[in-house]
Amino acid sequence: MTGIAVDRSRVRHAIAAKALLRLGVAVATITASGTGWAQTARPAPTPQAEPDPTTEIVVTAQRRAERLENVPMSVTAINSAIIERAGVSDLRDIGKIASGVQVNLSGAFTQPAIRGVTTLINGNGTENNVAIYVDGFYEPNTVAIGMELANLAGIEVLKGPQGTLYGRNATGGAILVNTLAPSATFTGKADISYATFDDKRASAFVSGPLSDAIRFSVAGSYRKRDGYLKLVDPNAAGQFVGHSNGVSQRAVRTKLEVDLTSNLVATLAYNYSYSNDTSGHVYTPYTYVPSFIPGPPRRATRLGEVSHDTDPKLANTTHQGTLKVRLDTGFGNVTTYTGYTSRKDRSVLDFDGTYSAISTLISDFDQDTWQHTVDVNVTSIDRLNLIVGGNYYHDYTRSPDDSGTLNLGTNNTLTAIAKAGSKTKAYSFYADATYSLTDALSLNVGGRYSHDVKTIDYRAQTGAGVVTFVPTHKEATFQKFTPRASIRYELAPRTNVYASISRGFRSGSYNLGGAGSPALLTNTKPETITAYEIGFKTARRLVRFDIAGFYYDYKDLQVSVALPNLNCPAGTTCVPIPQFANAPKAEIYGIDGKIDINPSSRLNFGIGAAWLHARYKDFATATGLGLNAATGLNVTQSQDWKGQQMARAPDFTVNVSSAYTVPVAGGALMLSSNLAFSDSYVISNPSLYGPLAGAFANKQRYRQEAFTLIGGNATWTDASKHFSLGVFGTNLTNKRYRVTYNGAALGDYSAMGMPRQIGVRAGYKF
């Protein structure tokens, strides 16, 4: 048959995008007719009025408290009630309830993506390009951010580059995590739950006054879960001897808030956490496996099954102390944030994923981070809100004196040891001003200057002590000015349209994993992104709606390529060395939006959707992992990724949620459900099958097919609202999906996401 070929996937996505846009127009029209847009007179807005957090959604996306609908950027605000209804337990689950957001694992490291902007480099000392802040403090450790929080108040997802106010390595956006503050009255809560896979959780929070001027809070959490990946029996095909990838976590968070004077408040906090979560830390090769790797039953061969002769470990221990001081003055307020964090990461990985001792990696890293931020918020000038601030950041990540990165070969013989250290010294200054030209029209301009100095020290030797990588020290400096500007017009009270342009910057980086030789131990160039966005937001009594269209011009994306280990001792199996590099250009555009409908106090319904086109625009010299069809083995090769989909950037995603409360047995029963659909996407490696794979040459290899996750809760609360009992379920259809998918010289490997989980919970609060 001849004729014009039709890409049905593209047609489907175009139709979906048009449907989403029509939905926005329809809601805007309905809102207009119901709020009197055509009237010549309307109540004058009060842009400087302090929002009421009891009746409105209040966010701090611009480092000040504002109504969500007044912020001229895309922000997804998620409060604790939404988080509980959706069964979200940590940052990795945010994609269930935030449109355009993906969070996946790359081995040991949690890597978020917002609107297709994510990182393809990872490792200790490497920062994401979606910035994470907890209570205003920057969190650089990509292992620690997967930890649960016991006293979560809410999460704000800021979409698009945050080059000004939250601009440290935030080309993709920022995620602001806020925990509960100490309260002036005694309050507390406790929750316990038990679920499939012997998943035991407990958390508690208590807060109250110690005196008229001093308040405290203490929160704690505990989790212990068996693994859900089946551990195959090494002696009997088709049999199993237990499970792998269990979780063990515990945390304590304390705060002491003191009124030093009538206008000076200090909050001192100490946080401790321990997490050993190996959810994505399994490397069992399933396909394209070399002949020297044992087959079944010494090796698992199917997704959801694993094998290893060394138990995996991914442990992070964190101690953190912070001090926040706020001074209210006649011109506004001054807030300082000072924090010190000490972390220890230990990783044990069976890289060959069999019951034979072929290749095991053990790595230890210590990390110390100092940070200090000063914000001056000026509100005393009529019609002007001005923020001026600065930040100092110092991070030192290194191998401990008595350890390093160890490569164990056949029979667990030490074949190589490397020691590395990386320092980052950075400072930035920023200013951001919003001026109300009229009661309805406001203009925002801002900018940030960032200056980073990064160093790396690296050396390596064989297990016998032969130097293979002479001690090498390198240093690089990166600096950038990143502006932003926006204009917002209030069509009606709490109904706005806006347009914005912003630029994001991610500093260059070194790879603590080393390189093939000192000459190859080079830094990446910084990546930059220029974003254009237009949007509409409204908040009415029954409906809250927002929609935005955006276009990103993305340059020098930082990526990881795999190079052979030139220093690999003869007769041993060594892991290829990841090399950091840059992709010249990419292009991202799309539409995303969300609508929440509240027909009554008992019923809530929400739907969010995103259509995204994220493609490499110029990457003709990508180093990808291809397939040699003749040998059936993986091979590193040069590939052209132009036009290929970027990682963690599905073309279409949908989130649906509902909650309904009915009176039952003298109390209230809340029934809630959530659905998250994702179109097919590349998880972390955009490689093609390549020119040696025949008909599959230009097809991307490591894709997760389209899938849907469905969850639900039923929670009864007594009339006093103190006691609650409930049941919950996640992935109710027991969908098999991947959280990691990649390949290496030893074959393709993947870790499966959480299967269906059913549980019960009980809670008490006062």
UniProtKB/TrEMBL annotation:
| Pfam family name, one | Plug
Q: Which residues form the signal peptide?
A: 1-38
Q: Where in the cell is it found?
A: Cell outer membrane
Q: Where is the TonB-dependent receptor-like beta-barrel domain?
A: 266-732
| The TonB-dependent receptor plug domain, residue ranges | 68-174
User: What topology does it adopt in the membrane?
Assistant: Multi-pass membrane protein
Its primary localisation, in coarse terms, equals: membrane
Q: Does the keyword Transmembrane apply?
A: yes
Keyword terms of this UniProt record: Cell outer membrane, Ion transport, Iron, Iron transport, Membrane, Receptor, Signal, TonB box, Transmembrane, Transmembrane beta strand, Transport
Q: Which InterPro entries match?
A: Beta-barrel_TonB, Beta-barrel_TonB_sf, Plug_dom, TonB-dep_rcpt-like
Q: Record keywords: Oxidoreductase included? A: no
Family in the record = Belongs to the TonB-dependent receptor family.
This protein is called: TonB-dependent receptor
Q: Which organism is it from?
A: Sphingomonas naphthae
